[in-house]
Specification:
This protein has about 110 residues and is mainly beta. It has a single domain, classed as Jelly Rolls, CATH 2.60.120.10. The protein is built from no helices and eleven strands. It has a six-stranded antiparallel sheet with strand order 1-2-3-10-5-8, with no helix packed on it. The chain has a three-stranded antiparallel sheet with strand order 7-6-9, with no helix packed on it. β1 and β2 form a beta hairpin.
Length: about 110
């Protein structure tokens, strides 16, 4: 399966078929993903370890282990590691397309927007 290191941590594909894609995502302390939207998929994040600050359509909320974040298609979203240890969550993508090119970056700490 696919795996990629990013400036904020890493992701690894655990499962993929025509109906869904499942990833294991690790965000290192003090880092965050880009503020982004997707046109062809929704996402569901289950926090496994650590403390996440999630921005969903401009509203920030903290999540801990066992909590789930539901991100509708088209919603602007971002996750930040608000803790001192690695943040680990499982992402389930549902929709019609799961490619990395279905990311519209609205803001990015790493010059990719």
């Amino acid at each position: 399966m696919d795996r990629d290191d990013r400036p904020w941590g890493s992701w690894e594909t655990l499962y993929e078929d025509a109906d869904c894609k499942v990833k294991r995502i690790v965000v290192t302390p003090g880092k965050r993903l880009s503020y982004q939207t997707h046109a062809k998929r929704e996402e569901h994040w289950t926090i496994v370890k650590g403390l996440a600050t999630v921005t969903l359509d401009g509203v920030n909320k903290e999540y801990g282990p066992g909590q789930v974040v539901d991100i509708p298609t088209g919603a602007a979203h971002r996750v930040e590691n608000a803790g001192t240890d690695d943040l680990l969550f499982v992402e389930v993508q549902l929709g019609s397309y799961f490619g990395e090119d279905d990311i519209k970056r609205l803001e990015d700490d790493y010059g990719r927007a």
